Amino acid sequence: GSSSRFVLLAAMALCVFSIAALSSADYSSATQRLSSSPAVRSIGRIPRLTCVHAKREGRSMPSHNSHSHISRRNFGAVGLGMALAGIGKASWAISGGGKGYSGYTIENEDFSGRDLVGEEFRGTMAKRVNFAGAKLQNAQFQKADLRFVDFTGADLSGAALEQCTLEDAIFKDAILENAYLGEPILQAATIEGADFTDAIIASSFTQRELCKKAKGVNPQTGVSTRESLNC
Fold first, then answer.
1. Residue 55 and residue 63: Cα distance in Å, rounded?
2. In this predicted structure, what is the pLDDT of residue 210?
3. Could you give the CA distance from residue 84 to residue 228 in angstroms, rounded to a whole number?
4. Which end of the chain is more exposed for a tag (fewer CB within 10 A), N or C?
5. Does 70 have pLDDT greater than 90?
6. pTM higher than 0.70
7. Is the distance from CB of 186 to CB of 209 less than 8 angstroms?
8. Is the pLDDT of residue 215 over 50?
9. Contact 78/70 with Cβ under 8 angstroms?
10. 101-133 burial string, b = 16+ CB within 10 Å, else e?
11. Residues 103-123 pLDDT 10s
């Protein structure tokens, strides 16, 4: 939320001012203390500026791999990493402008049960990600690679799933009320028990094809899949 972002920005500003204030002697002493601190030793290496496994545009994000010495540049990275750890579990991928996970590679990650309401996954490489039971209302998935993704029991109400790849994606018992769906939804492995009430479906052809696969009742809303698709 806005409060978390404020705390994060404050931590970053504090880190920058701390570095600027260090004399050479103070800097050397501080880096030695920081290198031997339990927090850094428990990580094993200098913390990365970005989150585990997150990649931008298919490439690994910049990182610092020094083992024995902390340079003035990545000393700031360590401070930022420790500040982030202090304010709780942050998002695994952070991009500028509040764009969430857009453009990152998060393949095989586990987001099950997480609150991702309104999150952005535009163009994200998310193959085999586990979104089971996640809160994904109004999430944006345009042009994302969602092959083999598990949306079992996820709430995708109002989510945008247009122009994305959904080959063998699982929508069992998912809620797709008012979701925006393109023809790729036909590539899904199963829609059993999914609730498509008032979903905006790309074409009458897509709707008819979905009806051929429709079966089951959504355990959360009590609405049958066929009824929700007006089959």
1. 11
2. 96
3. 43
4. N
5. no
6. no
7. yes
8. yes
9. yes
10. bbbbbbbebebeebebeebbbbbbbbbebbbbb
11. 999 999 999 999 999 999 999
In SS3 terms, the chain reads as: CHHHHHHHHHHHHHHHHHHHHCCHHHHHHHHHHHHCCHHHHHHCCCCCCCCCCCEECCEECCCCCCCCCCCHHHHHHHHHHHHHHHCCCCCCCCCHHHCCCCCEECCCCECCCCECCCCECCCCECCCCECCCCECCCCECCCCECCCCECCCCECCCCEECCCECCCCECCCCECCCCEECHHHHHCCECCCCECCCCEECCHHHHHHHHHHCCCECCCCCCEHHHHCCC
pLDDT over threshold 50, residue 224: yes
Only one residue has tokens 């002493």, namely 29
pLDDT value of residue 13: 58
Look up residue 173 and give its amino acid.
D
pLDDT value of position 99: 81
Q: Which two tokens stand for residue 40?
A: 């850094």
pLDDT of residue 84: 44
Do the beta carbons of residue 55 and residue 105 sit within 8 Å?
yes
* Residues in the chain, total: 231
Quote the tokens at residue 142: 């345009």
Strand arrangement of the beta sheet that strand 180-181 belongs to: 160-161, 180-181, 200-201
Structure tokens at 215: 């079966």
Q: pLDDT digit string (tens) for 133-174?
A: 999 999 999 999 999 999 999 999 999 999 999 999 999 999
